[in-house]
Structure formats: C-alpha cells, structure tokens
Amino acid sequence: MSHDAIVLLREDHKEVRRLFREYRGLADGDGGNGARHETVQRIVEALTVHTYLEDELVYPRIRREVPGLTEEMDRAKEEHHVADLLCEELSRMSPDDEGYDAKTAVLMDAVERHIEQEESSWFPQVRATLGRKELQEIGERMQAVRETAPRHPAGSGMLHRIADALEG
User: Is 85 exposed, middle or buried, given 0-12, 13-18 or 19+ CB atoms closer than 10 A?
Assistant: First the structure.
C-alpha cells in the first residue's frame, strides 16, 4: 500500500463516497432506522478521522510549502469546521429526529463539493510542488497518527481545541 499522502486522502474520499451511496440507498429504500443510523455513525467517524489528519498534518504543511494555496487552505479549514459541527450534531441524533435526513444530506453535499475541489484543484498543485519524497513523508505520518486520531467529532477540530483551552 502506498504511503503517498494524496493517495491516502483519495482512498479516504473513496470510502466516504461509498458510505454516502450506502446511506442514500437506505434512505431511498426500506433501509430501516437502525441501518441508517449505523451508516451515519460510520460517516461521522470516517469524516472525523479524515478532517483531523488533514487539519493537523496535511494543511499546515501545504500552507508552509505551497504558498499559492493559502486561500484554499483557509476555505478548506472552514469547510471542515462546518462538517465537524454537522457531524457532532448528527452523532447526538436519531433517524427519528426531525431534520436528521436533511442534516445528513447537507453534510454529504458539502463534503462532496469539498472533495471535488481538493481532487481537481489543489491535489495536482500539491503533487507538483511537494514531490514524491515529501508526500511519502506526510503519508507515513498520517498512517502513524490515524490509529490514535479522534473518531468522534467532539474530540477533534475546533470544538476540541475550545474544550482544551477551557480546561487548561
């Protein structure tokens, strides 16, 4: 398996898209609340790990070494913040709750736009600027951190940093 950071990010994207298709199939058919809830919880976990890795390992490096992408990194970080908030809300909801399916749909739409932007716009720039060795290094670090990365949105992103600041 490749440890190239972009390859790893694309694999995460592929898994998230698969989970989105699974959820849509359950929501459109006779999926039952238990299966929908389980799939949403897997989406929340996958996105929480992915955004944590990007925010903590990938984006800071890109910000330092690919100055032409500073605005894109700012926007991506804010998109992650919105996704974290939606994931946090969904993690506390049940499929019976009003707005559950709508909130899930908004999350999926936002994430799909985010993925498209990353893959079509800045992945090629990052690959051209950083090169293979650097991408391998970032990817190896991602693999090392993935096992201990937060799996619940309350343990990642801005909410986690606020809680840490209040406790500290």
Answer: middle
| DSSP code per residue over the chain | ----HHHHHHHHHHHHHHHHHHHHHHHHTT-HHHHHHHHHHHHHHHHHHHHHHIIIIIHHHHHHH-GGGHHHHHHHHHHHHHHHHHHHHHHT--TTSTTHHHHHHHHHHHHHHHHHHIIIIIHHHHHHHHHHHHHHHHHHHHHHHHTTS-SSGGGSHHHHHHHHHHH-
How many residues are given for the chain? 168
Summarised one tens digit per residue, pLDDT across range 61-106 is 999 999 889 999 999 999 999 999 999 999 999 999 999 999 999 9
Burial zone of 1 (CB within 10 Å; 0-12 exposed, 13-18 middle, 19+ buried): exposed
C-alpha dihedral (165, 154, 72, 8), degrees to nearest 10: 120
pLDDT of the residue at 31: 65
| Interatomic CA distance for residues 32 and 12, integer angstroms | 26
Specify whether the CB–CB gap between 20 and 108 falls below 8 A: yes
Where the chain has pLDDT below 70, the residues are: 1, 29-31, 154-168
